[in-house]
Design brief:
About 30% of the residues lie in helices and about 20% in strands. By secondary structure, it is α/β, with parallel strands linked by helices. It folds into 2 domains: about 190 residues, Alpha-Beta Complex (Spore Coat Polysaccharide Biosynthesis Protein SpsA, Chain A), CATH 3.90.550; about 35 residues, no CATH class. Strands 4-1-5-9-6-10 form a 6-stranded mixed beta sheet, sandwiched between helices. A two-stranded antiparallel sheet has the order 2-3. Strands 7-8 form a two-stranded antiparallel sheet.
Length: about 240
């Protein structure tokens, strides 16, 4: 628990990934990808329950071998690549409340594809949610000002070019730019009300936890190589 709130962690890991076959159990540093998230979960003493949401027996077996419970299987209707996070979290929350006979106050989504997250990133995110009274808190990464939305261009089929946002004409110095961020996938923390009543992963009151470290959301074999290199660098004295 944190701030007397019961916390459910959901690790979404469907089968059938297209970019990398069996991505969620593809080896990373000699272990299945999902095992890295399971290891992090074990380090967080305030978690009340942690489960994997999967439609794959192979992923369920790998998760359980790594110490992550797989008490249910995700229905086929919410297992495709066009299914949003809310559907998965809503199903997992209600199913675990049914199985555990209790009510969870918050749901934390930890995607296996973000193995560079640290325990402190997750704790900071969930503390912001539970102590700040937010509906949803996401980890985010700052956008390099070179790629700021007000500096983006559009090129039409005939080659003619324009600003993506005409407000960019007024930008002379980078100091005029308001920092922007993108979701990095490290951690999403949502109140029960956000998931069940508001039926969203954003919520009416929505906050971010910026992370300045490199975060990689794995989609390709090249991403696996990048993450392995980053993990190796971390282990250097």
């Amino acid at each position: 628990m944190l701030n007397n709130q019961r916390i459910l962690v959901v690790v979404p890991a469907r089968g059938g990934s297209k970019g990398v076959k069996n991505k969620n159990i593809h080896p990373l540093c000699g272990r299945p990808l999902i095992a890295h998230t399971a290891e992090l979960v074990r380090s967080l003493a305030w978690i009340d329950r942690a489960v994997v949401s999967t439609d794959s027996e192979a992923i369920a077996a790998a998760a359980e071998s790594a110490g992550l419970a797989a008490p249910f299987r995700r229905p086929a209707g919410i297992s495709g690549d066009r299914i949003g996070d809310w559907d998965v979290l809503h199903h997992a929350l209600l199913e675990m409340e049914r199985l555990d006979g209790c009510r969870y106050d918050a749901v934390v989504m930890l995607q296996p594809t973000s193995p560079l997250r640290r325990a402190q990133h997750v704790t900071d995110t969930v503390r912001k949610l539970t102590f700040g009274g937010w509906d949803a808190v996401w980890t985010v990464t700052p956008v390099d000002l070179k790629y700021h939305p007000l500096k983006q261009l559009v090129v039409r089929a005939d080659g003619a070019m324009s600003l993506f946002d005409d407000r960019g004409r007024a930008i002379i110095a980078r100091q005029q730019l308001t920092p922007t961020y993108y979701r990095n996938g490290a951690c999403y923390a949502l109140s029960r009300s956000c998931v069940v009543d508001q039926k969203t992963t954003m919520g009416a009151r929505w906050a971010g936890v910026p992370i300045d470290e490199t975060m990689v959301s794995i989609d390709t074999l090249e991403d696996f190589e990048r993450v392995e290199a980053a993990l190796a660098a971390r282990s250097q004295p």
